[in-house]
Amino acid sequence: MTMKRIGVVGSTTVDKIVGQNLSFLKMGGVTTYSGITYARHGIDTLAVSNIAEPDQDISARLQKENITVFNGRTEHTTHFVNHINSEGRRQRLPRKAQPIRDTQIANILKSAGAVHLGPLHPADIDMKAINLLGDPACYVILDVQGYVRSVRNQIVYPIVSKKLSDALTVAHIIKANKSEYDAIIDFYQVDLIELMNRFKIEEFIVTLREKGGFVQKSTGEKIEYDADRIGSLEDPTGAGDVFLAAYIIAKIFQKKNISAACSYAANLVAQQIAGNYIKKDTLLLTHKDGLD
């Protein structure tokens, strides 16, 4: 497969990070972490997202990273509040952008060899847009996180969405973390190979944090990988997006085998979590929006 361009689709966010003795705002979302990763590896990167007019400085930052931004109209940019501690992360979603429409997806399909989907909640990408990706000529990479959560009263809960099936139907490579993977298997009541056969998935990546993870191939082969040692914990936000983009870069664009692609992605994630890849200064925002 020969590809030189990729479209990255999903919310670009204003993230409030709250931890022990710290609180700050930064830009985030798949278009930020995956988009920047693709672009920094010399891949022509198109970002499809909805960023509100007051936050167009975020769009300008993406463009500075050599990402072409296809921005839609929206009253609000998606805002997340991430409370991070040693036990993990809990999230609130106080503001949501308008869903990404099929007309926005259509703008990139003729030129992008692949589309990387990174929805943050079930309504992030309109289902007409998802169904538009069913063309066999379109190679689709999916991070499932937005389809294994629900938002009620601004609180994010881990619940599998019925919309997941539509997304799995069009996707070739899937990524999930351990809790997302377990929820999906429980939801469909099948084992992973059966799930992959049902939806014609080529590869299913499961990340296990400090334990590494594995890639399950549709042929039945399972390739495990180790996590890289992290020298210091700066901020894990965006690690999954960096991992998936780095894996696709190594596997699809650089033609590396799965083991080598996983090792490369794990190394880049360790750098990201330690604050040494997409650095805080690149992402930091100065909005005074009163989010708590």
What this model shows, in words?
- This protein is of the alpha/beta class.
- Helix content is 32%, strand content 29%.
- It is globular.
Set out the fold topology.
Elements: E1 5-9, E2 12-19, E3 22-29, H1 30-40, E4 44-50, H2 56-64, E5 67-72, E6 78-85, E7 88-95, H3 102-109, E8 114-117, H4 127-131, E9 139-143, E10 150-152, E11 155-157, H5 164-170, E12 173-177, H6 178-188, H7 192-199, E13 203-207, E14 213-217, E15 222-225, H8 239-253, H9 258-273, H10 280-283, E16 284-285
Parallel strand pairs: 1-4, 1-8, 2-6, 4-5, 8-9, 9-12, 12-13
Antiparallel strand pairs: 2-3, 3-16, 6-7, 10-11, 13-14, 14-15
Helix pairs in contact: 1-8, 8-9
Helix share bin = 25-40%
Task: Please identify which CATH superfamily we are dealing with.
Answer: Ribokinase
Q: Quaternary state, please?
A: single chain
Point out poorly predicted stretches. Answer: none
Tell me the β content. Answer: 25-35%
How would you sum up the major sheet? Answer: 9 strands, mixed
Query: How do the helices and strands follow one another from N- to C-terminus?
Result: EEEHEHEEEHEHEEEHEHHEEEHHHE
Shape: globular
Query: Roughly how many Å is the radius of gyration?
Result: 18 Å
Tally of alpha and pi helices = 10
Mean pLDDT: 92
Overall CATH class: Alpha Beta
Counting structural domains, the number is 1
Q: What is the level-2 CATH architecture name?
A: 3-Layer(aba) Sandwich
